[in-house]
Amino acid sequence: MRTQVLIIGAGPSGLLLGQLLHKAGVANLIVERQTGDYVLGRIRAGVLEQTTVDLLDEAGVGTRMHAEGLVHHGFELMFDGQRHHIDLSRLTGGKSVMVYGQTEVTRDLMEARAAVGEQTLYSASDVELFGFDGDQPGARCTVDGERITILCDYIAGCDGYHGVSRASVPASAIKTHEKVYPFGWLGVLSDTPPVSHELIYGRHERGFTLCSMRSPTRSRYYLQVPLSEQVGDWSDERFWNELRARMDPEAAAALVTGPSLEKSIAPLRSFVAEPMRFGRLFLAGDAAHIVPPTGAKGLNLAASDVRYLSQAFIEHYREKSEAGIEHYSARCLSRIWKAERFSWWFTSLMHNLPNEPEIDAKLHRAELDYLVGSDAAKAAMAENYVGLPV
Ligand code: APR
Ligand code: PHB
């Protein structure tokens, strides 16, 4: 088989890249290790920056997002039993974010790809990349028991943190930076109305809390838990009681509980791999970087990588220009490091560490106090939350 751009991974990065390339007439093929249903079973964050919304529109997959997504003009910070409104639109000259789950973004992209007849090889095992440091890259993989070879001009490694693409790069050519946080997020999805019409990020001596949503009837809540916790030890009742204990009295009274549809614990990590291009292999999305979820930058960063990568390929094929290809890694990393900084800062501010010295807790408390009392500090937070320019 032969294609122009071979995409490894059919998560949001790979699917969005495929759709943008299809629109521009660039041939592409996606190879995915899992089944489509498995990919859709993963539940992740759900806050889209305006530039991500714009890119999804450009890819022609925005219709359901605009119909069902919730435009949010602000969020709330909760600490010391009180909530403080962060008015994103006022602080950023009218910007907002879109609350629309990553699962739905992925579903829309999968349906759009099927509708235009572009090919995705699902359940492809033992994917092996070759030749990306020379002129003839490609991949071998096993599909339906048969070993196949795919030749291409370029490989886009969109295969997430555990994928084969980053792992195929010689160790001497790549540098990785990593910070693992000493706590996790226990998440619950439930068909209950959200406790507030805006997201609430809470700091509490019992741990961080996030009250989020997927729709007016579906809520998503998270609790900071020690990494040693087992999800099996958290009955629904225990989860709701702990959530209530970390809320201000008004929110605690308003909380509507119900059976969980999903419950899982996710670790928190900051990770960046540099550079993001190795000859004819390009990394994009979680394959190159991970942010802790506080601030929901993961999918948005994946989208900005894909924006730059699709532009680079389109410039190459249409205008015979290599500029986008040459600058891909530096363009991405400049935006990524700023989002890594924001996600690390917001995580550090809102969580308490095991055995945290009292002075650290006091300093965080003072920073929160400063933040909610200063328009300058709030504006800095808001411009990062709605997304820095692409
Ligand atoms: N071969 C083929 N496909 C693979 C391989 C492999 N060896 N390894 C992994 N994959 C697939 C995974 O099964 C997955 O479907 O690559 C896909 C990667 O998808 P994601 O992990 O969702 O990564 P990405 O598309 O970059 O999306 C980034 O996901 O984790 C969130 O916060 C993150 O929202 C961001 C988004
Ligand atoms: C979510 O809804 O899952 C979500 C929202 C905001 C975050 C993280 C996760 O910062």
Describe the model.
By secondary structure, the chain is of the alpha+beta class. The protein has two domains: 5-71 and 96-178 and 269-347, 3-Layer(bba) Sandwich (FAD/NAD(P)-binding domain); 181-267 and 355-386, 2-Layer Sandwich (D-Amino Acid Oxidase, Chain A, domain 2), CATH 3.30.9. Helices cover 38% and strands 28% of the residues. It is built from 13 helices and 20 strands. The strands form four sheets. It has an eight-stranded mixed beta sheet, sandwiched between helices. Helix 1 (12-23) runs parallel beside helix 6, helix 1 (12-23) runs parallel beside helix 10 (298-319) and helix 12 (358-373) packs across helix 13 (375-386). The longest helix is centred in the last third of the chain and has 28 residues, at 323-350. It is globular. The structure holds adenosine-5-diphosphoribose and P-hydroxybenzoic acid. Residues 8-14, 31-34, 39, 44-45, 102, 124, 127, 158-160, 162-164, 285-287, 298-299, 302 line the site of adenosine-5-diphosphoribose (APR). InterPro entries: FAD-bd, FAD/NAD-bd_sf, HB_mOase, RIFMO-like. Residues 2-343 form the FAD-binding domain. It is an enzyme of class 1 (oxidoreductase). It holds the Pfam family FAD_binding_3. It comes from Pelomonas parva.
Topology:
Blueprint: E1 5-8, H1 12-23, E2 28-31, H2 36-40, E3 47-48, H3 50-58, H4 63-68, E4 70-72, E5 74-79, E6 82-87, H5 88-91, E7 97-99, H6 102-116, E8 120-121, E9 125-130, E10 138-143, E11 146-151, E12 154-157, H7 164-167, E13 175-190, E14 200-202, E15 209-215, E16 218-225, H8 236-245, H9 249-254, E17 260-274, E18 277-278, E19 281-283, E20 289-290, H10 298-319, H11 323-350, H12 358-373, H13 375-386
Parallel strand pairs: 1-2, 1-12, 2-8, 5-14, 12-19
Antiparallel strand pairs: 3-7, 4-7, 5-6, 9-10, 10-11, 13-16, 13-17, 14-15, 15-16, 17-20, 18-19
Bound molecules: adenosine-5-diphosphoribose and P-hydroxybenzoic acid.
